[in-house]
Amino acid sequence: MYSNLPTQPVGPNDLLAVAVYDSPELSRTVRVDASGYIRLPMLKDPIMVQGMVPSQLESAITTSLKKENVLVDPIVTVTIVELQSRPVNVVGAVKNPLVFQATQPISLLDAIARAGGIRDDAGSDILVSQEAPGEGKPVWVTQTIPVRGLIDEANPKFNVTLHGGEEVLIPEARKIYVVGNVRKPGAFPVRNDEETTVLQVLALSEGLAPYATKMAYVYRRSPAGPKTEIPIALAQIMKRKSPDVQLQANDILYIPDNKGKRLTAETLDRIAGVGGQAVVGYAVYH
C-alpha cells in the first residue's frame, strides 16, 4: 500500500482501501472509475474523489455515511493500494521503454534513466506530451526538448518536472543510406542539428572497397515526391580538388563498381595463377 503518500491526490483507476471502524460490511477495496467516482455499499449516491488526498477522502466518506443515515459517527481510514492515475510513458529510442507511476514528481532525466538511457540512434529532440484542459474535451500539448541542451549542456531549464500523465517520446534519428562499393554498407543516423557529408558517411562505412568509380550518385526524394539523381565527383572530393557534399536525411549514396577494372584484375589473377602452375609443371617435368 501507498501509506507513505498522504498528500497524493487520487485519480481514475486508482485502487483504494476503505476501512470503517466496527463496520466490516462497509470496509473494502474500491477502484476509482473513469469519471473520478467511487461507490460504497449502503450509499445511494457515488462519491466524487478525484483530486482528493486520503485525508480528504476520509472526510468525504464520513460525510456521506452520516448524510444517508448509515452510521451516526463513523471512523474512516483510506489508504491508496494501487496507483494507476499518474502513468509516465517513456518510449522510442531508449534502451528499455517502460511505463511507471509517478508516485512523486520526477525530473525528465530521471525518467529517461529509468528507461535505461537514450540509444545511440536517437534523434536530436525529445517530445514531452501531456493532456491539458480544452474546450469541450482535453487536448494534448507537446513540448520539444533538445537532447543536446538537456544532456550535453546540462541546461536545467530543459530538465522539466513530470507529475504523471505524460508521454516522453524520443524519436529515432533519420538515416542516410550508403550502398554499393564500400566496405560496410548500411544506414547511418543523422541528427537535424548536425551537418553530414559524403566523406563522413564514407568514414562510417569504413571507406571505399576496391574498384570504386570516380563518380558516385545521391538519390534524393523531393518534397513533391519524385526521386532525383545527383552526380557526385567522388574522385575529385577524395583528392581535395572539389568541396565535400552535404547530405540530407533519407538520402541514398550509391558508390558504383568499376566493372572494367575489376574484370581486368580478375583476368590478371587468373593469368598469374595459370603461369605459376606452368612454371611448376615445367620444373617437375625436367
Commentary on this structure:
- By secondary structure, the protein is α+β, with helices and mostly antiparallel strands.
- The protein folds into three domains: 15-82, 2-Layer Sandwich (wza like fold), CATH 3.30.1950.10; 87-170, Outer membrane lipoprotein wza fold like (Roll), CATH 3.10.560.10; 174-255, Outer membrane lipoprotein wza fold like.
- The chain is built from six helices and 19 strands.
- It has helices at 54-67, 108-114, 147-152, 198-204, 234-238, 259-285; strands at 15-20, 28-31, 37-38, 47-48, 76-82, 87-92, 98-101, 106-107, 125-132, 139-146, 161-162, 166-170, 174-180, 186-190, 196-197, 216-221, 227-232, 246-247, 252-255.
- Mean pLDDT is 86; it is low at 274-286.
Task: Please state the overall shape, judged from the principal axes of the Cα atoms.
Answer: rod-shaped
Largest beta-sheet characterization? 5 strands, mixed
Strand order of the largest sheet: 7-6-12-9-10
Low-pLDDT ranges:
274-286
CATH superfamily of the largest domain: Outer membrane lipoprotein wza domain like
Structural features:
alpha+beta; wza like fold; Outer membrane lipoprotein wza fold like; 3 domains; 5-stranded mixed beta sheet; 6 helices; 23% helix; rod-shaped
Topology summary:
Layout: E1 15-20, E2 28-31, E3 37-38, E4 47-48, H1 54-67, E5 76-82, E6 87-92, E7 98-101, E8 106-107, H2 108-114, E9 125-132, E10 139-146, H3 147-152, E11 161-162, E12 166-170, E13 174-180, E14 186-190, E15 196-197, H4 198-204, E16 216-221, E17 227-232, H5 234-238, E18 246-247, E19 252-255, H6 259-285
Parallel strand pairs: 6-12, 13-19
Antiparallel strand pairs: 1-2, 1-5, 3-4, 6-7, 8-11, 9-10, 9-12, 13-14, 15-18, 16-17, 16-19
